[in-house]
Amino acid sequence: MKVVDAGRDRRSTIKGELERMFLGQFEHTIDDKGRLTIPSRYRELIAGGAYVTLGFDQNLMVLTAVSFDNISGSIRGTSVTDEDARALKRWIFSNATWVEVDKAGRILIPQWLRSKCQLDSTAVIVGTGDFFEIWSPELWARHQENLQDPKTTAQRFNAFNIPL
Predict the structure, then answer these.
(1) What is the mean pLDDT of residues 156-161?
(2) 88 vs 157 pLDDT, higher one
(3) Global pTM?
(4) Is the CB of residue 114 less than 8 Å from the CB of residue 38?
(5) What is the rounded distance in angstroms from the CA atom of residue 107 to the CA atom of residue 95?
(6) Residue in 140, 113, 122 with CA at minimum distance from that of residue 52
(7) Mind listing the pLDDT tens digit for each residue in 57-86?
(8) Is 89 helix (H, G, I), strand (E, B) or coil?
(9) CA gap 150, 52 in Å, rounded
(10) What's the maximum distance between 2 C-alpha atoms anywhere in the chain?
């Protein structure tokens, strides 16, 4: 009879889930053609391609095909008679484009998306779990400043009731 250590099996499951998450932050250059090198760990997760769309904080969101399909399914399920639903559809779908990772580990970000997010020659790539974001360094620094006050941050996130 084989005895299984339930704790060890749970840790390996959690580790596997974490390995499929976008974690950390990285700074990379954007070349003159608009190509951005993707961190090697992220490349594995978007090896088959990804969707890039405008985020909600003057940034870009990069989603796997599965994540984009989940989001688009939820959005498509909203009522066409709802003004906010129509606006969200326009926001996500009109700003979306499919990208593929080239042999050098880069994606091509169209100029029209780079302009909307003030992306020039450098970008900060930020893991957010199920997807990652691309920020201009200046906008990312401003966003980070807003999160530096511990009391304000604790109050802001208190409603999420995050258990350990």
Answers:
(1) 85
(2) 88
(3) 0.85
(4) no
(5) 16
(6) 113
(7) 999 999 999 999 999 999 999 999 999 999
(8) helix
(9) 32
(10) 63
